[in-house]
Amino acid sequence: MVHTRQVGDQTLTFIVSGKLWRNSLIMQDKETNSLWSHITGDCMEGELKGTELSQIPSVQTTWADWQTAHPETRVLKKSEEITSSRYEGYFNDPEKTGLFRTLWLQDRLPGKDLIHGLVLGAHQVAVTDAALVVGKPLETDLGDVKITVWRDADGGVRAKTKDGADLLVRAAFWFAWSSFYPNTAVID
Predict the structure, then answer these.
(1) What pLDDT, in 10s, does the model give residues 156-180?
(2) b vs e for 64-102, b when ≥16 Cβ sit within 10 Å of the residue's Cβ?
């Protein structure tokens, strides 16, 4: 998820707080030292408590899919080659799925399955990344609202209500999403 840094007239600078809440990263802004959930965008503690950051539409995709859909894209290249990631071991270990109460949720999906979550009022749905194929929209209910979820050619996932209203789609690992929304309906 990508959130705006704007709160009113103020532009915030976010850093990693080193804290977790419900198995997910807590951001901290340098300006007020307030703590923010990266899953919901809500300020949980501090001067800005009760404020919610707006989400910026973003796409999690492969370079090949992006380049095919957007061949005019220009890339900023670093001067040195990147050969590894300090998070490689984390991403490759399916057992590293947070610290709190996640094992019972893994009966529904593997903890590191990438899902695309939607929330409407008190209702949530998680669509597995594997269930979304370009050109094959999925129709489902979110509470009593009919919705359509689909993958664009660039790999992005979008959703609309039957009335045409855009819905916010949040990509997350299942273990983090389900810690926030344990009663989520799952489409896989």
Answers:
(1) 899 999 999 999 898 988 888 888 8
(2) ebbeebeeeeeeeeeeeeeeeeeeeeeeeeeeebbeeeb
Q: Which residues contact 11 (CB under 8 A, 6 or more apart)?
A: 5
pTM, whole model, 2 decimals?
0.77
Edge to edge, the sheet with strand 145-151 lists 138-142, 145-151, 157-161
Q: Which residues of 152-174 are buried (b: 16+ CB within 10 A; e: fewer)?
A: eebbbbbbeeeeeeebebbbbbb
Six-digit token string for 57: 């539409």
Structural domain boundaries of the chain?
Answer: 6-45, 97-187
The first and second tokens of residue 164, run together, are 């045409």
What separation, in Å, do the N-terminal and C-terminal C-alpha atoms of the chain show?
21
